[in-house]
């Protein structure tokens, strides 16, 4: 008898535990939850649909609480969470895992804090539940949200528009609210004081999906315009993206100013080697200028000299010419011979005569007679002697645009993206590890040879040859708006004291004057003296990068107020880091996402569908798949990003700008992986994400239109579910419809695409995919993936097609 009882209890416990732990089983537990808020709950009742009471009373406070610093207490027939700070996860769970359909009713009162109340239903585990969030998002909205394996199957946007039509009344202190959440079948309904505020339909628990995704586009229902600045680029000086990347300069450590900071353990003659019988050393005996104090002294016997092999070799092309400029002085008999050579083979040659004791700049054009990706620039003295050299520069004669500064092949990659804006110059590069290494734009303008060379936290020296002025030129050459991200007095490790912030506030005001001010203004005059009297018309200024917390609130307020007062037309962008900025409006806020393909497909693709409206606009300033991705990016990652980008487009009423990150990494210096474009000395190759960026930008449309989607769902590797096909629907200026369909699965997916009250007669498509999830380009296979076009299969006015595995297909439909 005793044994039998024990066995029965164990079986019962095991059954309950299995039901609780198996993510595919319904799970009935409920929870009370507060977020930085002190609140009380009482009169807790759970009823079944037929009115039977499943639970009544208060949960046991000694069990089932989550949140280390939460403090739950029983007070006058209620339970109270009493700690306001540091308790974002103050949760108390109770109920029965076997409940399926039920209604949870509770009275709740806030005593203090930032938000309202959260009620969990259908809890499988703390991080797997559906929750009704009353006064969430800093008491700015109510919402039904999910964590973990739940998904909503609502037709596109219907719930969100229901929510945004409501006048939201924030939760106030010291008032008892009647809260009610019911989960009946797959429908979740949320009420406050008897009024339905939100209803959603969840993905059916059992995934007996249809095999087809059906989409009905309501071409007659325009939702809102697409922001004209939607797709841009984020240019950070990261991984030799400028020097050794888009900046066409081929000489590395060209003014012998690299390695100035001793603790970096580099020498100012780094990247220079001797050839033949010669020595090289750093010299400061007769600087070329006060701000350029180091040069190299070379002592050579006949035939000896020095060489520089640029950024992992110099890419030299037969027939191309190269502009050399070099400052020399010394005592040599006869000329200094200059050559481009590789493994003893001379690709181009020239000579410089008349070397005297005084510094003189010599210019020479070298024309190559052979091709080599791994060449060196060599200076030799045929008759021996001592010479000093500085300010050595070698540019290909063929560059992009008027400025002559940028590498043609790389600029063409950028131009193909048709970016609306360029965010520059970082990223972490703006912050620096310390304030001494932070980006300060005033040190990057003016005489090229007198600019600060600067240690870059991505592991190299930056010459600032492309400084603030040249970044503005880059934007101009791409026809893109400038979005400057300025240091706000915060580095990774240090913060400028508030009483020393004047300089940083002034920098912010002056960068705007430099870009936009009249030539009669102080900084407008400097811009004109630097060769650009016309204003650059900069529109956006971002205050800081990935800065947050109280220190950011304080510094943002200072710069924000000064810029607002003097330049009300400038669009200010704030950071979200840990939490959004407080104390001043966010205006446009910069959000960053570096996640897995699964996150982008499941959570990311619908992230903005339920975002609060009306308070701020969003700039997704950095995003990319950085986990579970190949060395050079790969197809599945690119497709995850495409699913996410569909979500950005569907929510263009709030998402105004977006940029993949980072843009470039020299293929031989990849501290950050992956990147969009990989410069090599003899060309470049791209991550498949580049094709996705290009296709979205080429097909950006003018208006977002409504559609209903009846989805097939798939399970992602992270245990979430996502729609097998992510979609967006736009109308272009010429009236044609642009439908983007992203197949997130590794199998073909059936799509049934129709237009409400119309038949499709003319449609074309372009698609991008590749041979498998890990497909990518690489240094040795640079063109492995490409876009395709072809006819569309239309059947009785409806597009019926099988989308290739892991693909983006863009349909253009003319009605
Ligand atoms: O894009 C790479 C880095 O990621 C950026 O420097 C920074 O802003 C983010 O952390």
Structural key phrases:
nine-stranded mixed β-sheet, binds alpha-L-arabinofuranose, 16% helix, 12 helices, 815 residues, alpha+beta
The helical percent reads 10-25%
What integer is the average pLDDT? 90
Strand content: 35-45%
User: How many β strands by DSSP?
Assistant: 50
Low-confidence stretches: 6-26, 153-167, 204-208
Largest sheet: 10 strands, mixed
Shape: globular
What is the rounded distance between the termini?
Answer: 77 Å
Listed once per kind, the bound small molecules are: alpha-L-arabinofuranose
Strand ordering within the main sheet = 47-46-50-44-43-40-15-45-49-48
Radius of gyration computed on alpha carbons: 31 Å
Structural class: alpha+beta
Count of runs of 4 or more consecutive helical residues: 12
Describe the structure concisely.
This protein is an alpha+beta fold and 815 residues long. The protein has twelve helices and 50 strands.
Give the SSE map.
Elements: H1 2-21, E1 29-34, E2 37-47, E3 53-56, E4 65-66, E5 72-75, E6 78-81, E7 90-94, E8 102-113, E9 117-125, E10 128-135, H2 136-139, E11 141-147, H3 158-165, E12 176-184, E13 187-192, E14 195-201, E15 212-225, E16 233-234, E17 272-275, E18 278-283, E19 295-300, E20 304-308, E21 314-316, E22 321-332, E23 336-342, E24 345-352, E25 360-367, E26 372-381, E27 385-396, H4 408-416, E28 421-424, H5 428-431, E29 454-456, E30 460-462, H6 468-478, E31 481-486, H7 502-516, H8 522-529, E32 540-543, H9 549-566, E33 571-577, E34 579-580, E35 588-595, H10 597-602, E36 617-625, H11 635-650, E37 655-660, E38 677-680, E39 683-686, H12 688-698, E40 703-710, E41 713-715, E42 721-723, E43 725-731, E44 737-743, E45 749-755, E46 762-768, E47 787-791, E48 794-795, E49 798-803, E50 807-814
Parallel strand pairs: 15-45, 16-28, 28-31, 31-32, 32-33, 33-35, 35-36, 36-37
Antiparallel strand pairs: 1-7, 1-9, 2-3, 2-6, 2-8, 4-7, 5-6, 8-12, 9-10, 10-11, 12-13, 13-14, 15-40, 17-20, 18-19, 19-27, 20-26, 21-26, 22-25, 22-27, 23-24, 23-26, 29-30, 33-34, 38-39, 40-43, 41-42, 43-44, 44-50, 45-49, 46-47, 46-50, 48-49
Bound molecules: alpha-L-arabinofuranose.
């Amino acid at each position: 008898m005793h044994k039998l009882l024990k066995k029965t209890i164990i079986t019962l416990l095991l059954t309950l535990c299995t039901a609780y732990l198996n993510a595919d089983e319904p799970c009935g537990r409920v929870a009370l939850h507060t977020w930085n808020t002190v609140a009380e709950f009482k009169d807790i009742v759970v009823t079944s649909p037929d009115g039977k009471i499943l639970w009544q009373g208060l949960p046991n406070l000694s069990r089932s609480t989550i949140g280390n610093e939460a403090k739950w207490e029983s007070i006058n027939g209620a339970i109270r969470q009493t700690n306001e700070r540091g308790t974002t996860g103050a949760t108390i769970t109770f109920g029965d895992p076997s409940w399926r359909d039920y209604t949870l009713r509770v009275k709740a009162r806030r005593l203090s804090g930032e938000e309202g109340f959260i009620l969990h239903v259908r809890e499988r585990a703390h991080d797997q539940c559906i929750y009704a969030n009353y006064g969430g998002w800093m008491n700015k909205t109510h919402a039904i949200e999910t964590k973990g394996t739940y998904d909503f199957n609502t037709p596109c946007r219907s719930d969100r528009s229901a929510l945004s039509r409501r006048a939201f009344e924030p939760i106030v202190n010291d008032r008892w609210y009647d809260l009610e959440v019911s989960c009946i079948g797959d429908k979740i309904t949320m009420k406050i004081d008897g009024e339905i505020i939100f209803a959603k339909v969840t993905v059916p628990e059992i995934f007996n999906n249809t095999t087809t995704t059906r989409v009905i586009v309501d071409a007659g229902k325009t939702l809102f315009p697409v922001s004209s600045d939607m797709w841009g680029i984020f240019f950070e000086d990261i991984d030799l993206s400028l020097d050794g990347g888009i900046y066409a300069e081929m000489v590395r450590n060209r003014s012998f100013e690299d390695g100035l900071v001793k603790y970096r353990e580099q020498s100012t003659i780094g990247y220079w080697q001797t050839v033949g019988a010669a020595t090289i050393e750093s010299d400061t005996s007769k600087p070329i200028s006060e701000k350029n104090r180091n040069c190299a002294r070379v002592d050579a016997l006949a035939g000896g000299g020095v060489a520089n092999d640029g950024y992992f070799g110099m890419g030299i092309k037969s027939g191309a010419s190269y502009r050399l400029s070099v400052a020399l002085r010394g005592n040599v008999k006869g000329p200094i011979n200059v050559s481009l050579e590789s493994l003893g083979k001379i690709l181009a040659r020239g000579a410089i005569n008349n070397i005297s004791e005084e510094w003189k700049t010599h210019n020479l054009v070298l024309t190559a007679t052979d091709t080599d990706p791994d060449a060196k620039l060599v200076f030799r003295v045929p008759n021996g002697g001592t010479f000093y050299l500085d300010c050595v520069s070698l540019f290909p004669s063929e560059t992009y645009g008027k400025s002559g500064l940028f590498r043609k092949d790389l600029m063409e990659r950028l131009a193909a993206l048709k970016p609306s804006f360029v965010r520059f110059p970082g990223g972490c590069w703006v912050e620096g590890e310390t304030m001494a290494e932070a980006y300060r734009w005033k040190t990057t303008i003016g005489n090229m040879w007198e600019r600060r060379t600067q240690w870059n936290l991505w592991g190299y020296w930056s010459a600032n040859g492309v400084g603030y002025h040249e970044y503005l030129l880059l934007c101009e050459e791409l026809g893109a708006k400038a979005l400057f991200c300025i240091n706000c007095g915060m580095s990774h490790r240090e913060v400028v004291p508030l009483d020393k912030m004047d300089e940083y506030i002034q920098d912010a005001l002056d960068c705007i004057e430099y870009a936009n001010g009249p030539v009669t203004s102080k900084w407008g005059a400097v811009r004109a003296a630097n060769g650009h009297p016309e204003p650059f018309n900069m529109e956006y200024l971002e205050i800081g990068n990935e800065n947050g917390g109280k220190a950011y609130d304080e510094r943002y307020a200072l710069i924000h107020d000064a810029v607002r007062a003097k330049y009300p037309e400038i669009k200010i962008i704030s950071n979200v880091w840990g939490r959004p900025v407080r104390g001043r409006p966010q205006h446009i806020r910069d959000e960053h996402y570096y996640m897995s393909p699964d996150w982008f497909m499941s959570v990311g693709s619908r992230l903005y569908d339920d975002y609060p409206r009306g308070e701020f606009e969003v700039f997704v300033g950095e995003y990319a798949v950085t986990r579970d991705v190949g060395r050079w990016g790969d197809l599945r990652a690119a497709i995850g990003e495409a699913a996410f980008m569909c979500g950005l487009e569907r929510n263009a009423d709030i998402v105004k700008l977006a940029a993949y990150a980072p843009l470039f990494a020299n293929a031989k210096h990849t501290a950050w992986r992956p990147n969009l474009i990989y410069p090599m000395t003899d060309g470049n190759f791209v991550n498949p994400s580049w094709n996705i960026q290009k296709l979205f930008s080429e097909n950006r449309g003018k208006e977002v239109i409504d559609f209903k989607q009846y989805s097939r769902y798939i399970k992602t590797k992270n245990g979430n579910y996502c729609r097998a096909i992510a979609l967006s629907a736009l109308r272009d200026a010429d009236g044609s419809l642009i439908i983007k369909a992203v197949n997130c699965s590794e199998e073909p997916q059936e799509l049934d695409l129709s237009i409400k009250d119309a038949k499709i007669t003319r449609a074309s498509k372009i698609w991008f995919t590749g041979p498998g999830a890990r497909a990518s380009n690489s240094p040795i296979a640079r063109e492995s993936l490409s876009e395709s076009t072809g006819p569309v299969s239309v059947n009785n006015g409806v597009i019926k097609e099988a989308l290739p595995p892991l693909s983006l297909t863009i349909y253009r439909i003319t009605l």
